[in-house]
Design a protein that fits this description.
Strand content: 15-25%
Helix content: 40-55%
Shape: elongated
Largest sheet: 5 strands, mixed
Radius of gyration: 29 Å
Distance between the termini: 61 Å
Strand order of the largest sheet: 5-4-3-6-7
Number of helices: 10
């Protein structure tokens, strides 16, 4: 306030711009300290409005409270339950209107991020989808969430988008890729994802000339879930890790044959036969990148 006025208390100067006018009581809701009771300084007869930089105009709650309330709301908790949690955990009373306003503000920020231009070339895309419970017309339902992460020419990762879809399909992936290209996505040479047929088809149509590789994590998990004995699964992980740690293709294929033989001897002939074909293609693409 002294900086704004240009004079200390009781100082007489012709250059001053306004006068101190006491304090106004104000409350601020916070997570670490609950509700804070503040004295906001006031100014009169000034040529410009005075406001403390500690908080924004009309701000009554810490930004963290807004974000946490919005996240809880989007995870499916009712506004009443969120208000109860804030009282029990943070010692802060909030209203249902506060939760709705927080969710609206976060949604607006996400909308801005989702339309942000993509100015850098993204030679590599990592794509994955998972199913989450989402609020839809006052109901909480399970929907697919498609996530795309890009890696630019400097090796820097950037999370490009997350889109909600009713299910994984060619149409849903095509829609996501078209939106990314409208935002400026270009220079894609390599795509890593699971082996979903609709995703592979969309990549082939919209990223001409780009190579596709199956994600190692999905590949390993798909095999591991068919091995039920703990000891066998542990050995499987050790052998598959050995395949990917080899310095060249021939040694990697040799290690894959060892793994295939292990699976066959332990009662998994179908997995053994399928593994050599699928892992051979993955190693080829890895060397070709």
């Amino acid at each position: 306030r002294e900086l704004h006025i240009g004079a200390a208390p009781y100082e007489r100067t012709a250059e001053r711009d306004g006068y101190a006018s006491g304090y106004k009581p104000r409350q601020m809701n916070t997570i670490p300290a609950g509700t804070l009771h503040l004295h906001q300084p006031q100014v009169r007869d000034s040529s410009r409005p005075f406001h403390s930089k500690l908080f924004a105009y009309y701000q009554r709650s810490e930004k963290t409270l807004f974000i946490a309330a919005a996240e809880l709301y989007f995870k499916g908790l009712s506004t009443r339950r969120i208000c109860e949690l804030y009282g029990d955990v943070f010692g802060t009373e909030i209203s249902p209107e506060f939760v709705s306003r927080a969710a609206k503000e976060l949604d607006e920020e996400i909308s801005v991020w989702k339309d942000e231009p993509i100015t850098e070339e993204m030679p590599i895309l990592i794509i994955d989808a998972l199913y989450k419970h989402c609020r839809d017309n006052k109901r909480v339902v399970s929907k697919g969430v498609i996530n795309v992460c890009g890696i630019d020419c400097n090796g820097k990762r950037r999370f490009l988008c997350t889109e909600v879809a009713d299910c994984e399909s060619f149409d849903s992936y095509q829609s996501v890729f078209l939106k990314l290209k409208e935002r400026g996505l270009r220079g894609v040479h390599f795509v890593i994802s699971d082996a979903h047929a609709g995703l592979k088809k969309a990549v082939k149509q919209l990223f001409h000339g780009a190579s596709w590789q199956r994600c190692r994590v999905h590949f390993i998990r798909n095999y591991a879930k068919n091995i039920h004995k703990k000891k066998e699964k542990k050995q499987f992980y050790a052998l598959i890790k050995n395949v990917y740690s080899q310095p060249d293709r021939m040694k990697a294929l040799s290690a894959a044959e060892e793994l295939s033989e292990y699976l066959r001897k332990n009662g998994h002939p179908r997995l053994s036969e399928r593994l050599l074909d699928e892992i051979g293609n993955m190693i080829y693409l890895k060397q070709g990148q």
